[in-house]
Specification:
Layout: H1 3-12, H2 16-28, H3 33-52, H4 58-75, E1 91-95, H5 103-114, E2 119-121, H6 128-138, E3 142-146, H7 153-165, E4 173-177, H8 183-189, E5 193-195, H9 198-212
Bound molecules: cobalamin.
Cobalamin is lined by residues 41, 44-45, 47-49, 51-52, 58, 61-62, 64-65, 68, 98-105, 107-108, 144-146, 148-151, 175, 177-180, 195-198, 201.
Length: 213
């Protein structure tokens, strides 16, 4: 079996011990933490598919979360170190109302911090008004909304409509991210950008902040 597929399959098959052993082996063999996370992500994508076609149940989704959490714990020391966050807040992030998925959001926040970007994390199940309040309180010029459930896409539109009703819309660049987002959803919600790749997300935020400067 290829070196990549072994971890993807261990995660997909919910073999926790095997997956964690592979993660430790890979990190010792100088595979980057991000590559490892990407392999795990391909694994949980399969978990999601099996859940959709009813081969897996909710308990299996929960198991995949447990595995991903342990993987992140192992990898944490190997990610680039956080820079001091003494400056002003650059970006406000949160998971949309009704949605409690946060592993992807937290990963992106981790990577943003590691390149010196100051993040204000609103957490999960964040109401539209809370996003607006977060932006007003911090003066951040970027907003990142994480959305994993397609039936919460309307909530994302509500957030952006609310921002448009305030006088913040011209000052804030809005990025949506998460498994289901695409060009159509971007257009429907009125976001400025969408992104599903962690690395690209960091590059995008860096570019936006530099432009605003
Ligand atoms: C783990 C998981 C859970 C865990 C979440 C744990 C947690 N703390 O996050 C638990 C078990 C709690 C869970 C619950 C549910 N889940 Co769930 N879950 C998953 C699963 C298997 C993996 C998600 C994940 O963590 N991926 C790994 C991370 C790293 O990837 P990511 O989130 O996509 O993030 C990456 C990018 O998208 C991007 N990104 C993410 N956010 C942002 C934000 C910004 C601003 C940017 C720039 C980028 C960005 O960067 C990340 C890094 O690359 C997915 C399957 C899938 N294919 O995604 C289903 C999935 C998302 N879940 C699903 C469902 C249905 C549910 C439940 C409704 C099940 C139920 N019956 O209760 C509940 C809903 C709970 C709720 N109210 O939110 C469905 C959604 C289907 C749909 N069309 O809406 C999926 C797709 C599974 C499926 N195929 O059916 N789930």
């Amino acid at each position: 079996m290829s070196m990549k597929k072994d971890l993807i399959n261990a995660v997909a098959d919910l073999e926790e011990e095997k997956a964690l052993t592979l993660v430790r082996e890979k990190i010792e063999n100088d595979i980057t933490p991000l590559e490892i996370v990407e392999q795990c992500q391909l694994g949980v994508e399969i978990v999601g598919k099996r859940y959709s076609d009813r081969t897996y149940f909710l308990s299996d989704l929960i198991m995949s979360e447990e595995i991903l959490r342990c993987v992140m714990e192992i990898l944490a020391p190997y990610f680039p170190k956080e820079h001091g966050d003494d400056g002003e807040i650059d970006i406000v992030m949160g998971t949309i109302e009704g949605d409690i998925h946060d592993l992807g959001k937290n990963l992106v926040i981790y990577l943003l911090k590691s390149v010196g970007i100051n993040v204000y994390d609103l957490g999960v199940d964040v109401k539209p008004e809370e996003f607006v309040k977060g932006l007003e309180e911090t003066g951040a010029s970027v907003l990142g909304i994480s959305v994993l459930l397609t039936f919460t896409i309307n909530e994302v539109k509500k957030v952006i409509d609310l921002i448009s009703e305030s006088d913040l819309r011209d000052e804030v660049t809005i990025i949506i991210g998460g498994y289901p987002v695409n060009q159509n959803i971007k257009e429907y919600t009125g976001a400025d950008y969408f992104e599903t790749d962690a690395n690209n997300a960091v590059e995008l935020v860096k570019d936006i902040l530099e432009e605003n400067f």
